[in-house]
Design a protein that fits this description.
Elements: E1 3-4, E2 10-11, H1 13-20, E3 25-33, E4 36-43, E5 46-47, H2 48-51, E6 70-71, H3 83-94, E7 109-113, E8 123-130, E9 134-143, E10 169-172, H4 173-190
Antiparallel strand pairs: 1-2, 3-4, 4-5, 4-6, 7-8, 8-9, 9-10
Amino acid sequence: MESIDKRGIIRNKSTKDCQNSSSMLEIRIVEESPGATYYDFFIDGKYLPHLLQIGQRRDNWSFYGCDLDYFEVDRIRFPKYDRTKIIKNFVNVCLDKKRPFNQFGTERVVLYRCHCGCDYCGVISFSLKTDDEFVHWMDIRYETEGGFEDYEPEDDDEYDMRNLKTGDLKFCRAQYEYVFNEYLGKIASLK
């Protein structure tokens, strides 16, 4: 018999080994304001931007943007903009239902981008690999249009992105999919 707890952990004999050998993914609210709800990833209870050593994402303009964030848009100036389409596309990429796309032409998933929304400013991205049991976020790193080595930090840069690399993250596919589907339910209730 299968059961799911409040963190999305699926409890049955066949998933026990999977969850013991992988990281626990969570998507939590990190900030709320009128018209906006900002979400982010937590890995084994730790805030992903801290694991990546980029500080507090909401305070770091270089990595301010994340496609998990939900916010209202000026409907007069942008009548056709639908934030939920961007969110659903990102979730489908993370669930390996759509191919990833970024402006650099690499098939890497963009986690965080500049506050201006432009990938050309540089992004933090990863390669996605899935199989029947696991989801892998591989080679998480800073990417620019010049590749991975084309980065010269400014004198006042707080973070030197040349050394950013956490290694790979591995998630139990059942728990991972549950978390993203639960997140989509929360977004649907915000509309």
